[in-house]
Specification:
Layout (H helix, E strand, L loop, with lengths): L1 H10 L9 H17 L21 E3 L8 E3 L2 H14 L1 H6 L7 E7 L2 E8 L2 E7 L5 E3 L2 H4 L17 E9 L2 H13 L8 H9 L4 H6 L3 E11 L12 H10 L9 E3 L2 H14 L7 E8 L2 H7 L1 E2 L2 E2 L2 E5 L4 E13 L4 E13 L2 E7 L3 H5 L19 E5 L7 E5 L24 E5 L6 E7 L6 H12 L11 H9 L6 H5 L1 H7 L12 H12 L6 H7 L7 H11 L2 H13 L3 H4 L8 H12 L1 H11 L21 E5 L7 H10 L3 E2 L9 E4 L5 H9 L2 E3 L1 H8 L2
Parallel strand pairs: 2-13, 21-22, 21-23, 23-24
Antiparallel strand pairs: 1-6, 3-9, 3-10, 4-5, 4-7, 7-8, 10-13, 11-12, 14-15, 14-17, 15-16, 15-20, 17-18, 19-20
Length: 698
């Protein structure tokens, strides 16, 4: 149970996001269940809500503890909550025909709880929830929030009252802050809740003020008259919230009062549908018994009231609106649709985009030709359900047809590349006889989208790996006209010397950084052949395939000549050699690349500037692994898997992909799994990556 305290410390008020709300709620519910079974097994010290007050702020003891709420995750839980209330007050219901058991329902704001103390209408102190009993004094920071009055309006407030509510950040302000931070290389903000929490803990209130936070009032702690006698602000929850509004606080307009469990659930559905349009994050709906005297009679369990419950939204799903569908063109010419969504928080992350995969997916057709989403297509303006599991890219899993706008038109997937205007086609799969699910631009090297992505791929870490020339610099150089094809990278220094506008004068550069970049480029003029082939960006040619091609042909000249000859032959497959580990698809792709004269010209221009090293397998006489069969597994820390394979082959070893009785050595890195277990069962020698380097003398 002590882990629950630690978890709450991480997840509740720190804004660190160590646990999702759903994970924290699950731990909390376990603890409350233990308390119901045996209060002695869950002492107060184990039922803290929130986190212990942080260092650096004065401590504030709450006049009345700030409690947590039990959770409801289904309609049945809500119905049971109302039924429990009716059962508890059954005597009143039977005795008095006018007795009304009413409840309120209001959005559960996903922000940071705060308590504001007013004395004679003047704001004197504000604090965080902390551990529920003691919080942090953040008075000066709270004073910067426009929704929090420094002096109460109207009249009729208690002499002393703690007004409680939630500090939050709107989606618009969150996006503004993210954009501003990105512009100046600042931190990457995860979601509005964590950002609001961090903003309230600034030592300088001016920083908090710059974040434009908001506050909704919905509860209170102590409420006393001048003599210190408890004086509730009103008779019901509804009336108290109305008074808050009269006193100058912002209150949530979506609050409902009803006597029906069905009405509570219907309001939950209504709020969930509006979730994406509210402009701020909510993670559920809170239901409360309306009459304050009945709240006191029903009482509490552990550190949660019996008279209130939070109906949470599904943790990894949310409802939002599809505002547009954009088409992105990838490095291989693939036209990929992307959904633009009204921002909504799903699983602790703000989601604004979702993958739509391909045009069939938009139509409601899966890769196997079977219907998805019950065959319902996606249209701009649709209200949709978005799902995010773990770190998976968000996807649309459902469409609320009853919310579809009148006149919404089916999406027309473009047959023309939006980047260059070339025809975009779906290729026919020769094996299956079916059209490829992806539509591709035929513009190849003339398509700006493909050029930039090809250049990024060319300089990427597993390709030529040019230090200081990343995605940002490639995009900048292309936009400025400095590079348009790979060969331009290696003539950049010479052209810059002749240019009127020097690179050292461009944004983000200077004399030192430019010299380092030019030196890094020159250092890659003699790349390894397998890296060079991979860098060309031939479709279907990955790192492993590039290594197999390099091993087969040995030199770039032989690779070029053979591929061109095969591309020009009626039966290219009779000219292009069969290579172990390379199938017909890769061979066809290589021949198609060399069938394009513009690709060949670009390659020849590049070879005027670089000299790829021959791929030579040199087996030294003293190689201790020559003839051995080796397998690599787990995470390698000193080399990539491709580099490891190439090293072993150069030393005369045979690299296998699985462990068998023929395996001589297994090199196991961190995270090794089934291969390690099988090797131990077969008695295969197992060594670490460091031991491998020692053995081969590297």
């Amino acid at each position: 149970m002590k882990s629950i305290i630690r978890s709450s410390d991480l997840a509740y008020d720190r804004g660190g996001g160590a646990l999702s709300d759903a994970e924290f709620d699950a731990l909390k519910d376990i603890l409350l269940a233990l308390y119901d079974i045996s209060p002695a097994s869950a002492k107060d010290e184990y039922t803290e809500v929130g986190a212990a007050p942080a260092e650096g702020f004065a401590k504030v003891r709450h006049g009345v503890p700030m409690l947590s709420l039990a959770n409801a995750f289904s309609d049945e839980d809500v119905t049971e909550f109302v039924a429990r209330a009716k059962k508890f007050f059954m005597a009143d219901i039977l005795r008095d025909s006018d007795f009304v058991l009413a409840f309120t329902a209001e959005p559960k704001i996903d922000g940071l709880s705060a308590s504001l103390r007013y004395e004679n209408g003047v704001f004197v102190r504000g604090a965080t929830r902390g551990d529920g009993t003691e919080g942090e004094d953040i008075t000066e920071n709270l004073k910067t929030i426009g929704d929090i009055p420094h002096r109460l309006k109207g009249s009729g407030w208690p002499a002393a009252i703690e007004v409680r509510g939630e500090v939050y950040m709107t989606h618009a302000e969150f996006q503004r802050l993210k954009a501003h931070s990105a512009k100046f290389g600042g931190q990457d903000y995860v979601n509005p809740r964590n950002t609001a929490a961090g903003s309230l803990r600034q030592k300088d209130p001016k920083i908090t003020a710059s974040r434009n936070l908001n506050f909704f009032a919905y509860a209170w702690g102590i409420a006393e008259d001048a003599d210190g006698v408890s004086t509730p602000p009103a008779a019901t929850q509804t009336e108290v919230v109305q008074k808050f509004k009269q006193w100058g606080f912002a209150t949530n307009p979506l609050m409902l009062r009803t006597q029906s469990a069905d009405d509570l659930i219907a309001h939950y559905r209504k709020i969930e549908e509006q979730r994406a349009t509210l402009g701020y994050d909510i993670d559920g709906v809170v239901y409360k018994l309306d009459r304050l005297d009945l709240q006191q009679r029903w009482g509490f369990v552990a550190r949660a009231p019996r008279w209130a419950i939070a109906h949470k939204f599904p943790a990894e799903q949310a409802t939002t609106v599809l505002t547009g569908i954009d088409i992105q063109v990838g490095r291989t010419g693939a036209l990929t649709p992307v959904a633009r969504l009204k921002p909504v928080t799903v699983g602790g992350v703000v989601v604004e985009n979702a993958t739509l995969h391909n045009e069939d997916y938009i139509k409601g057709i899966g890769n196997n030709g079977e219907p998805i989403r019950n065959g319902i297509d996606l249209r701009v303006g649709d209200t949709v359900t978005v799902q995010r599991a773990g770190d998976v890219i968000p996807q649309i899993v459902d469409v609320l047809l009853d919310k579809r706008p009148e006149g919404a038109e089916p999406f027309q997937f473009p047959h023309i590349c939006p980047a260059c205007g070339s025809e975009a086609v779906r290729e026919l799969n020769e094996k299956t006889g079916k059209l490829d699910s992806v539509r591709r631009c035929t513009g190849e090297l003339i398509c700006p989208a493909q050029v930039v992505e090809n250049l990024k791929h060319f300089v990427s870490r597993n390709a030529l790996d040019i230090d200081g020339l990343g995605d940002k610099q490639v995009a900048q150089f292309y936009a400025e006209g400095r590079i348009a094809r790979p060969a331009d990278i290696f003539t950049l220094r010479t052209r810059d010397e002749r240019a009127m506008k020097k690179l050292k004068d461009a944004d983000g550069f200077g004399p030192v950084s430019v010299k380092k970049l030019f030196d890094a480029i020159d250092a890659r003029r003699e790349p390894e052949l397998d890296r060079f082939i991979f860098a060309l960006g031939i479709r279907h040619v990955g790192e492993t395939t590039a290594a197999l091609l390099a091993k087969e042909f040995g030199t770039v000249e032989r690779f070029r000549e053979t591929a061109i000859a095969a591309a020009q032959h009626e039966d290219g497959h009779s000219v292009f050699p069969e290579i172990g580990g390379i199938g017909e698809t890769v061979r066809s792709s290589v021949m198609a690349f060399f069938a394009n004269e513009r690709n060949v010209q670009a390659l020849d221009d590049l070879l005027d500037e670089v000299r790829p090293q021959p791929y030579v397998v040199t087996i030294s006489a003293d190689s201790v692994v020559a003839g051995k069969t080796v397998v690599f597994t787990g995470s390698l820390e000193k080399m990539t898997r491709t580099e490891a394979k190439a090293m072993a082959e150069r030393l005369g070893a045979k690299v296998a992909g699985s462990v068998s009785g023929a395996t001589d050595i297994l090199i196991a890195g961190p995270g090794a799994g089934s291969k390690l277990k099988k090797a131990e069962e077969l008695g295969v020698e197992v060594i670490s990556e460091d031991e491998w380097f020692e053995r081969v003398g590297q």
